[in-house]
Amino acid sequence: MSLAHGDTRDSLSNRRDFLEGLGIDYRDLVCARQAHLSHVQYISASDKGRGALSEEDAFCNTDALITDNRRLPLAVFTADCLPVFLYDPKNQGIGLVHAGWKGTKEKILTKTVLLMQELFSTRTKDLLVGFGPSIRQCCYAVGREFFDFFSYGLTSRDGQLYLDLVGINKKEALDLGVDKTNIFDSSVCTYCNPKEFFSFRREGPSCGRMMSVIMLK
């Protein structure tokens, strides 16, 4: 699905075929040139189509998108990192977050929710949060330096340290005041499922990317 990673020859047709069944025009997508940072971008109606057909006009150095505009599909691309879907049904605002370990360290989920609160008057008790497929604690081996980055979500097994990327973001959502019954997790590990998902850890930098999309109807 990516225009920058993996075999991109069929990326546009893949996007079209995937989104057609959802009633979404792939040419309307708003995408970001993700940088594993924590910048959150508000998307206005005039931004429709940015990054849809070319990587060049996507939002640069951006890893989270929010909007309150209808028929404006937001997209992020992952291959082990965690896609986080946010929906405020009361005020009709949405957000989509690309949360790798670096963005998680910088609390990108919190920054996204705070901007939704500022712009949409979102109340965290109303917020619905969804975690898509990502590398899970079963497979996410990391170095001892991660103890300097996270005080939670690290476990040791057979002499190796493992990171719970989803668990850290879930705790962050709960700490913000999101109701635990409003948190939904796919429980899918990208590393464990080579036939269904790309995995940067498994395949290396040349692997393709999955696309996550959210839109207000």
Question: Can you give a write-up of this model?
Answer:
- This protein is α/β, with parallel strands linked by helices.
- It has one domain: CNF1/YfiH-like putative cysteine hydrolases, CATH 3.60.140.
- It is built from 5 helices and 13 strands.
- The chain has a 6-stranded mixed sheet. Strands 9-11-10 form a 3-stranded antiparallel sheet, with no helix packed on it.
- The longest helix has 13 residues, at 108-120.
- It is globular and about 50 Å long.
CATH class: Alpha Beta
Widest sheet: strand ordering: 2-4-7-6-8-12
Query: What does the largest sheet look like?
Result: 6 strands, mixed
Strand portion, in percent? 15-25%
Q: Could you provide a short overview of the structure?
A:
Helix content is 20%, strand content 24%.
Q: What descriptive keywords fit this protein?
A:
13 strands; 3-stranded antiparallel sheet; 6-stranded mixed sheet; 217 residues; CNF1/YfiH-like putative cysteine hydrolases; alpha/beta
Task: Chart the SSEs and their pairings.
Layout: H1 11-20, E1 32-33, E2 40-42, E3 59-60, E4 64-67, E5 74-78, E6 82-88, E7 93-99, H2 101-105, H3 108-120, E8 128-131, E9 141-142, E10 154-157, E11 160-163, H4 165-176, E12 183-185, H5 200-203, E13 210-214
Parallel strand pairs: 1-3, 2-4, 8-12
Antiparallel strand pairs: 4-7, 5-13, 6-7, 6-8, 9-11, 10-11
